[in-house]
Amino acid sequence: MTGPAPFFERPGPRWFSIPAHRPFVDDLARGLLNALEPLGPEALPRATVLTPTRRGARALADAFLAVGGGRALLLPQIRPLGDLDEGEPPFEPGDLALDLPPAISSRRRRFELARLVVDHGDKLSFRPGPVQALELAKALSDFLDSAQIEEVEVDGKLDGLAEGDLAQHWQVSARFLKAVLRAWPERLNDLGLIDVSERRVRLLRALAAQWEKEPPTEVLVAAGSTGTAPATADLLRVVAAAPKGAVVLPGLDEDLADSAWDQIEGTQGEQHPQGAMKRLLDRAGIARAEVRAWVPDVDSRGRWRRRIVNEALRPAEATADWLAQIASLRAEAPDLDPIAEGLTGFSVIAARAEEEAAGACALLLREALETPDMTAALVTPDQTLARRVMTRLQRWGVIPDSSAGAPLAASGAAILALHLARLVEEPLNPVRLLAFAKHPLVLGDDETLAATMLERKGLRGAAPSSAEGLRARLKDAPDALALAERVLAAVDHAATPYAEDGFAPPARSAQALVEALENLIAPNRLWAGAAGECLGALMAALIQDGQPLPAASPQAFADILDRLVNEETVRVGGATHPRLRILGAIEARLVRADRLVLAGLEEGVWPQGAPIDPFLSRPMRTRLGLPPPERRIGLTAHDFAQAASAPDVVLVHCERRGGAPAVESRWLWRLKTLAAGAGLSLPRRDDVLDWVRALDAPDPYSPIKRPEPRPPVEDRPRKMAVTRVEALTRDPYAVWARDILRLYPLERPDEPVEARARGTAIHAAFETFAETFPDAVPADAAAVFEKLYVEALVAAGMPPTALTRERALAREAALWVAEWERQRRATARKIVVEAEGKLELSINGRPFTLTAKADRLEPTADGTVHILDYKTGAAPSQKQVDTGFSPQLTLTAAILMRGGFPDLGSPTPGDLTYVRVTGRRPAGEEQIRAFAGEESAAAAIKALEGLSTLIARYDDPAEPYRSRVAPQFVKEHPGDYAHLARVFEWSTSGDDGDGE
Q1: DSSP 882-915
Q2: 325-349 burial, b for 16+ CB within 10 Å, e for fewer?
């Protein structure tokens, strides 16, 4: 390149290469500048440079400014060829595009193909719904792109494609493909459009034909492309043969042994980093030896790095002579160890998991900023990891230039739209209603209190059964009601397309959704910013181009919108650090930094596994002439080899990913194996992991003690219900929080109410039944009780979805209750329900009141009164009652004995019974914990004595209200105040109570 003659004066065709360890765009710009600047100031701007991508074109423009020393330059015409595999369009030269129809947009193409999928669904083994059709349309788009880029005519090859020993699934796929591929060109013709990939191929073909017929007379350089598409490869051949043309390849391995080069073929060759360039040179009829160096290679360390990486990635069949190759490399440089020289500046980090890997990457980038003018870049195909690294860098106020962008689904406008779409499906879902109503775009500056009241009064607890039910809950909160009306109006408007039969075209649904949002929020706020613009473009495409999509239910439309939103990425701009970049593997092809951090080096991430084609098996692809799925692995291998040849490279991989063990990338494994064969190992940066762990390390664990509040004696309760005495026995802290501090737990929005509703309903049904039929049981008692129970379930808030099951259980329960009531009425003088009792006591010379509300009392002819308590769940065990941990029935008996129920006198307590009603097997049962007479009286006296002892203990100012003094009951009664007591902080220390 620095010889006496410029590159374009050498005889053509002219093929050059820039080694992988060299900064590609910098060397390219420097070479062009050195060759053209001596010819005058007009020579450089008259030249044309073709790059693979737009980002490559921008990087080359920046490189000209850098190598030009900051002086003013008229740049050459830099044009992107367009990466056909990545969906980038080429530039449209001159009038060549005028004879071609316009290209169909990617979204409209997918919607149109989804329509064809539904129309030809009879050819499949199932009838695809709208969401499935959209997914199959994406797979069809990929298939069409592959066929068009490879310029393969598949229509005539589909007959008999899946015959023979292929599975029936592939035969179904072949029939379906045949039908769709015949209908698709007709549909495009009706629209007057053409597929994007086909148009790109035609443009490149037309350009190649024009330049072959009338070659450009000015300097023409195509740089950085590997010519994976046949049309691109043929254009590169024409450029190389132009009078002043040249092709500059990225990282051609000129040192790979000829035997290994010849083995780059077949499936293994597709996965090799040099596979694409070997196919390109073979197609152009150029031997590898004819490719010249663009610049002299004087970087010894970089040369050996490149040699080591290329040796590690040689074809699998050629790795048997690695030891011989290591010896050969060392023989080339007897004065130094080329393997050790090549590994200088090369290091590996093995993180435990993704979070630690992100922290290590962020620290490596931040470390680079400590060196003046040093640049650094993270290269990874894992966008989630890239976003984690961005978040970590914000710790130091550093924002890198990132190509990963941000997911649209995480933006405020998209979240709001998805919430509204789901609310059409479930209009009264309390959690979604709250999320929607409290969204910053919906909530006004003066509506914070209204939103709080909407939550507290309207949406906590059981879900409202109807909009009228929600309005009734908010009748005393006008501001909250106004906010709810606004939200409900938006939901109603978004639901209008489904009014007739519950289905609507997605285009109409999207229109109604946008109208509902714009009625609620000013458009200049709703669509503001990059995320708003991206969402607006998506919704506009769905409205304008989504007409072909089949009618969908609200749930299906919400799924469609969710799928489309999650596929979008918002390219964020703003002020970024000029020396830090985060790049995908594709963006990094032509970009170089002083330090490269290559992360995500696990199998399935980098490289990604070969894509699964739902329509074509590998033999079917081969018969059609399509490339194997492994070709993409070869392209990513080339990207890795380019990046790994940089002077300062850190390879980062995770030992676990997603909680499961991860397998390190095959490329990393090969590099480690090659180094081990040379008696070396890849250098490690364990110091970075130490920094990461130190940054995120928590303070030494010192658990708090069990809380022991000691309120003043005068504030301690002197009146308690028998159920609260049970709480004082098991968890005194709960009594302190509820009865002294008056802290009451809030119900969660959409609180599951099934268990509570059953308990409330069974009590209500028994009470109403006893009051309606105080004496004899009616003949249709089972039907009457079943009706009362179901009505009480509805009133208690039982969701309609659960009522179907509960009706069956209610029927069985009612049959048991009817027979049980007949037996009980035979011995009872009367039935007393929900009776309130009270007992005044003097404990330590201070008054104390014990209260009870008995579910059912049954006075009998012998003067005893049976005490019954209804349960729909498990009843306390005999041991719990005997030890005083469940004193409800025994203390109720004590109140009864002392005349605490005025209408019943002071009788002897009868049976102390739990009545468990479930509707299952058995449908109901009696569980007697103390029998009438001496046993129940003794149990009552013992319980009262235990109460006196308990209350006397808490009359001591030093006695604390400890948390969970009976931990054996935690699973049965987890309590409402465990979070306030910070139970999980102190219980793990072993101080878990003595079970007193």
Answers
A1: HTTSS-HHHHHHHHHHTT-SGGG-SPEEEEEEEE
A2: bbeebeeeeeeebbbebbbebbbbb
Residue 84: what pLDDT?
A: 44
Gap between the Cα atoms of 627 and 229, Å rounded: 11
Name the residue among 932, 930, 913, 926 with its Cα closest to residue 861: 932
Distance CA 942, CA 482 (A): 57
**What pLDDT does 324 receive?**
81
Compute CA distances 277 → 150, 232, 635, whole Å. Answer: 16, 12, 10
pLDDT number for residue 237: 95
Q: What is the pLDDT of residue 219?
A: 92
In whole angstroms, what is the distance from residue 259 CA to residue 270 CA? 17
3-state secondary structure 651-718: EEEECEECCEECCECHHHHHHHHHHHHCCCCCCECHHHHHHHHHHHCCCCCCCCCCCCCCCCHHHCCC
Contact predicate 227/631, CB 8 Å = no
Quickly count: other Cβ atoms within 10 Å of residue 694's Cβ: 8
pLDDT of residue 72: 81
Query: What size, in residues, is the chain?
Result: 996
What's the rounded Cα separation, in Å, for the pair 207 and 202?
Answer: 8
- Residue 971's pLDDT is what? 56
> Cα–Cα distance between 828 and 820 in angstroms, integer?
12
Tell how strand 924-930 and strand 908-917 pair up: antiparallel
**What pLDDT sits at residue 2?**
43
How far is the C-alpha of 969 from the C-alpha of 731, rounded, in Å? 10
425's tokens: 């499906």
Q: Which residues of the chain have pLDDT under 50?
A: 1-4, 84-89, 989-996
CA distances from 264 to 258, 275, 316, 317, 588 (A): 10, 6, 9, 9, 24
Nearest residue to 595 (alpha-carbon basis) of 744, 379, 448, 449? 379
The answer to whether the CB of 950 falls within 8 A of the CB of 726 is no
> What torsion, rounded to 10 degrees, do the Cα atoms 416, 417, 419, 421 define?
170
Which residues, in sequence order, are CB contacts of 673 under 8 Å at separation 6+? 312, 322
SS3 840: strand
- The side-by-side arrangement of strands in the sheet containing 48-51 is 77-80, 48-51, 220-223, 245-250, 15-18, 292-293
Element (H, E) at 436: helix 430-437
Whole-angstrom Cα distance, residue 940 to residue 891?
6
Do 713 and 952 contact (CB within 8 A), yes or no? Answer: no
pTM of the model: 0.85
Instruction: Give the residue among 913, 832, 921 at the shortest CA–CA distance from 876.
Output: 913
- How far, in Å, CA of 971 to CA of 521, rounded? 47
pLDDT confidence of residue 166: 56
Of residues 888, 840, 841, 889, the one with CA closest to residue 865? 889
Task: Report the C-alpha gap between 347 and 649 in whole angstroms.
Answer: 6
Sign of CA dihedral 170, 173, 175, 181: negative
How many CB atoms within 10 Å of residue 115? 19
Q: What is the pLDDT of residues 530-559, one digit of tens each?
A: 999 999 999 999 999 999 999 999 999 999
pLDDT of residue 297: 66
- Cis, bond preceding 800 (omega within 30 deg of 0): no
Question: Which of 276, 564, 302, 278 lies closest to 414 in space, CA to CA?
Answer: 564
The 10 Å Cβ neighbour count of residue 305 is: 26
Strand pairing of 220-223 and 48-51? parallel
Report the distance separating Cα 117 and Cα 133, nearest Å.
6
Cβ burial of 126 (10 Å; 0-12, 13-18, 19+) is exposed
Name the DSSP class of 243.
T
Calculate the CA dihedral of residues 826, 830, 832, 837 and round it to 10 degrees: -110
